[in-house]
Write a structure and sequence with these properties.
Blueprint (H helix, E strand, L loop, with lengths): L1 E6 L4 E17 L4 E18 L4 E13 L4 E12 L3
Antiparallel strand pairs: 1-2, 2-3, 3-4, 4-5
Length: 86
């Protein structure tokens, strides 16, 4: 896992993380059960900040790749808005 963060300004932070994992999984063959290595990779980009004094914003974008032979790719976008009372 590799991660980095930076403070863009007094109100805004940026964060990124890369994760890699390879582990054995069972795959059903035609006549036997086969053990294969399955790789999984994740990349997350995140930005947190304040739009106003009490209005908070958190944005995340996450990509995931996994599989053997024919891999799969997926992504998600998260957007959180919060209000901080006094």
């Amino acid at each position: 896992m590799i991660q980095a963060s930076d403070k863009l300004s007094e109100r805004w932070d940026v964060f990124s993380r890369y994760f890699y994992e390879c582990k054995p999984v069972r795959a059903n063959g035609e006549f036997t059960k086969i053990i294969r290595d399955q790789a999984r990779q994740k990349l997350r980009l995140q930005m947190d900040g304040a739009l106003r004094d009490r209005l908070l914003l958190k944005s995340r974008l996450e990509f995931t790749w996994y599989g053997y032979e024919q891999g799969s790719v997926g992504w998600m976008v998260f957007q959180d808005i919060g209000y901080q009372s006094s």
